[in-house]
Amino acid sequence: MSKKTIYALALSAVMLASCKESFIERPSLSGTTTGNYYNNAEEVRGATSTLYSGLPWRNYESRAQDAIGDVMGGNMFTYTDVEYLKFTVSSASDRIGAAWGAFYKIIGYANVMIKTFEEKKAAGGGAAYLDPAIAEARFIRGTVYFYIARTWGAAPIITDPGETALSGNFNIPRYIQKDVLRFALEDLKKAEAGLPESDVPGRVTKYSAKGMMAKLYLYQKDYANAKAKALEVIQSGKYSLVSDYNGMFTKASLNNNVESLFSIQHQFSQDPWGTGNIKNPDRGPGNLRTAEADAWEMYVPSISILKEYEFGDLRRKWSVMEQGWTNPNWKPQRVNAPKYNTFMANGYKYDTLQPAADGGQLSPTRANIAKYFAGPGKSFGGEPVLGQNSGNNVVLLRYADILLIYAEAVLADNASTSDASALEAFNKVRIRAGLTPKTSITKDDILHERRVEFAFEGDYWYDVQRQGFAKAKAIIEKQNRGTAQNPEYITNFTEDKMYLPIPAGEIIQDPELGKEPVPYYK
Predict the structure, then answer these.
(1) Where is this protein localized, as stated in its record (predicted)?
(2) 3-class secondary structure for 469-498?
(3) d(CA 299, CA 284)
(4) CB of 256 within 8 A of CB of 266?
(5) What's the rounded Cα separation, in Å, for the pair 493 and 91?
(6) What's the CA gap between 513 and 503, in Å, rounded?
(7) Percent residues over pLDDT 90 in the chain
(8) pLDDT digit string, tens, across residues 397-416
(9) Domains of the chain with bracketed CATH
(10) What mean pLDDT, rounded, does the chain reach?
């Protein structure tokens, strides 16, 4: 771990001050002490709110999430992150550095909160509000280490950056992936024990921890525990599938809905570097760029994902814009563009035949992403958007995932299953999508369902990866990763592509990161 990263994490040790105005506003980095602060729930919850904010998560969720989860997974085509498309990612990649920095920044915040609140509690602070806050920080830290373990495999584990900085020993090794996953799971178990059964919308609860544990257990192929934890979430009765699938990602009014177990919290902001969601322009089609909304379509649906949808799957039009797709509420207009304005006057039409200057749209794959695109702006019939910013949360765990985890955990290593409870969970997801329920399911059925259900949510690469190298190779090499006119296929997928390289700058400053990983647990 580099000195720069460690010092950044150590700086978090002086952060935690109140955040009274807003649930997700970032706490001040003032030097308040445990002696004169964190004396009530409001002060403590003001501090933990930063863990949910788009500010520390920004450098992961804005583009690294797309490049790693969906470009590498084969769901997105791009001319920008071509190295993720072709599996030629180098340790100098901007996306790798951005994700690494964001993840360890969040961990730094969580570490400081855990230590600070435990010290406050030991000094006589109120356990009733400190214990849930410690559990929140453990949930976030455990979740982030789960992401780290899946992204890089072996990685550093840091629990006290302040102590590390003071010691002057920055030669921190990578720890084996098994131990990083174990550390993440231990945090999630402690979060499960300390979090409340329910809380205000947006805050994680005991069931958020159970759900994330189920996902981690599934990744480890611990099917018994994955099934048990998913079932606890299902039987709680606290969650259900939202009928407005597209709205979950495009309407701020549906933030923290009944399907969401954990989301990054965003606020609509005029500050482009504030707490807003900035996925909008990277996904929006160029013909929806207006005076209010940027749209430069950096990422578009891949040919492969377009072929994955079954006939009649409603998720296709909820997730993808293509020929014939319309939104009568969106009526974008432009200055000095009479043909464009006439074409869009009665509502937005996705048309690949119309000239681009007159309102047509012709992406490299003849499609654009609808998920997380909030529209052309409020003045033109969409959600509030200003430049890059919308107010839509980014969902990292939702109930549909729990249902499919449960079905897969019941299937386990069997070739197929007709178990009634597994089919009930699996078919709830299909029925919402307008598809016929299945009477028996296989692993490939579940992987297909997961791919289209969570398309463009940054998750599919991890589903491919957890199949093991041989199956991952077969999946990746089958995908058309080219354009509508020029198909391209990966023909040399090798085992070293299963995890991303450590950022080059980190290895230069901490050569231990370039060495073979070691056990964390003795």
Answers:
(1) Cell outer membrane
(2) HHHHHHHHHHCCCCCCCCCCCCCCCCHHHH
(3) 9
(4) no
(5) 18
(6) 9
(7) 88
(8) 999 999 999 999 999 999 99
(9) 3-205+501-514 (1.25.40.390), 299-371 (no CATH)
(10) 92
